[in-house]
Amino acid sequence: MINVQHISKSYKEVEAVSDISFEVKKGELFGLIGPDGAGKTTLMRILMTLLIQDKGTASMGGFDVIKDYKQIRNIVGYMPGRFSLYQDLTVEENLNFFATVFKTTVAENYELIKDIYIQIEPFKKRLAGKLSGGMKQKLALSCALIHKPEILVLDEPTTGVDAVSRKEFWDMLKKLQSTGITILVSTPYMDEANLCNRVALMQKGKILTINTPAGLIENYKRKLYAIKSNEMHRLIMDLRSFEKTNTAYAFGQYLHVTGKKDDVEATEFEDYLKGKNHTELQVFDIKPSIEDVFMDMMGEQ
User: Fold this and answer.
1) Is 48 helix (H, G, I), strand (E, B) or coil?
2) 85-119 per-residue burial string, b: 16 or more CB within 10 A, e: under 16
3) What SS3 class is residue 189?
4) Cβ neighbours, 10 Å, residue 146
5) Residue 292 phi/psi, 5° resolution?
6) How confident is the model at residue 301 (pLDDT cuts 50, 70, 90)?
7) CATH topology of domain 2-218
8) CB 21 within 8 A of CB 43
9) Nearest-angstrom CA–CA distance, 66 and 178
10) Is residue 92 within a helix (H) or strand (E), and if so which, with residue range?
């Protein structure tokens, strides 16, 4: 449903997207995972026919993003990163407007948005600009779906909303996927990668790897340790100056640490840190997360 081949895009001296290629199958939930500045939004705007790439080709539903842009706009629903609905129209007016633009009605496709819309229906007379972050998100998703698109493109849809709204939103995406809609979503939140069928990890305009969430973790071969002491700031400085440390970075209440060689044992880190007068030490091996995989690949780059 989505085919991207060797896409590149630059803004003067900055290469925002560099030689990116991937495919998304029909009915798949595919994630673009990476921090701000990774190139996710530029890539999505190219796919949504809002930007023209410098190199490469891309198609959505078999339609070329340059030659067939009108057809693409009829089969794709788009939710940009910034709330872009009409803030001086009510919830109801926004939804009716977008339905009219796509030559349909709210009633015609109501079943598709019903589970989402009933959550904001009590506020249907409220101006969109007066809604909370979570409610704006649900309204934007309803408007993106009202014409029954084949592909749904969501640019960082959960940024800036609370944890409960994030969970609700992903539950809604899973329900939509079960209807056969192909979904492309970008996010800076590594934990959301686990909710996708496949993900592309992006950094500085390039794709580091593409795999299933389970496949990414399976391919992580390093020994990984969680380490904690009574002085966390000094701990990270000491570990980074230790000759046997490969990486050490903060992860919640612990530091996640790898050795330069896989035969570096937990006891070696513990003995070194005791020699640096750290107390209340905790050192134990752990299983990696998607974020650990991403940090490791960034280090290799």
Assistant:
1) coil
2) beeeebbbbbbbebbeebeeebeebeebbeebbee
3) coil
4) 27
5) -65, -40
6) low
7) Rossmann fold (3.40.50)
8) no
9) 30
10) helix 91-101
Query: Per-domain residue ranges for the chain?
Result: 2-218, 225-285
Strands 225-228 and 282-285: antiparallel
59-79 pLDDT, tens per residue?
999 999 999 999 999 999 999
Q: Looking at beta carbons, which pairs linking 66-73 to residues 24 or more positions away fall under 8 Å?
A: 72/48, 73/49
Instruction: Categorise residue 48: left if φ over 0, alpha if ψ from -120 to 50, beta otherwise.
Output: alpha
Q: Distance of CA 38 to CAs 35, 45, 83, 297, Å?
A: 6, 14, 20, 14
Whose structure tokens read 């706009």? Answer: 73
pTM value surpassing 0.85: yes
Q: Which amino acid is at 137?
A: Q
Q: Which fold has domain 225-285?
A: Alpha-Beta Plaits (3.30.70)
What is the C-alpha to C-alpha distance for residues 25 and 163, in angstroms, rounded to an integer? 29
Q: What residues are paired with 59 via a beta bridge?
A: 3, 64
pLDDT tens digits for range 104-131 = 999 998 988 998 899 899 999 999 999 9
Long-range contacts of 158-161 (CB under 8 A, 24+ apart): 158/187, 158/189, 158/192, 159/81, 159/187, 159/188, 160/133, 161/133, 161/134, 161/137
Q: Which residue type, as a one-letter code, is found at position 20?
A: I
